[in-house]
Structures are given as structure tokens and as C-alpha cells.
Write a structure and sequence with these properties.
Blueprint: H1 2-13, E1 17-18, H2 20-27, H3 34-39, H4 44-57, E2 67-68
Helix pairs in contact: 1-2, 2-4
């Protein structure tokens, strides 16, 4: 489910590949993942802001399909 949502996010943002950053962005709002971030005392609001800033820096394309970056 996270991967499918990550692909959807990448497509919405016009990114040509799914990056780990997309999955992190989805995980920040996922009820299954949130407790793990809380256990690690990760400030979700700050991390969310940082993730959003970094997502905006990713390359964008129009049209086409989204691929997975295995790097």
C-alpha cells in the first residue's frame, strides 16, 4: 500500500521516478508508521516540512509513467 501511494504521490508531483522520499512522505501520515516515528522521538512536523522541501527539489516531467529508482 505504501508503495502504491508513493507512486501516486510521485505522479501527482510530476516526478519521473519513485524515490525513498516519496515513501517517507506517505509514511508520515500513515497510521501504521506514525508510532515508529513517535518511538524514535522524531519531530513529525519538522520532518514533514523538510520532506516537502526536498520533494519540491526533485526533477519534474510532464506525461509518461513513473519508474522506481533502485539506487
Amino acid at each position: 500500500e505504501l508503495i502504491q501511494q508513493s507512486a501516486s504521490l510521485a505522479q501527482q508531483l510530476g516526478n519521473p521516478t519513485i524515490e525513498p522520499l516519496h515513501t517517507l512522505a506517505i509514511g508520515l501520515n500513515n497510521p501504521f508508521c506514525k508510532p515508529f516515528f513517535a518511538m524514535l522521538n522524531i519531530p513529525l512536523e519538522q520532518l514533514g516540512t523538510l520532506v516537502e522541501e526536498e520533494l519540491n527539489k526533485l526533477p519534474k516531467v510532464k506525461g509518461g509513467k513513473v519508474g522506481i529508482d533502485y539506487a
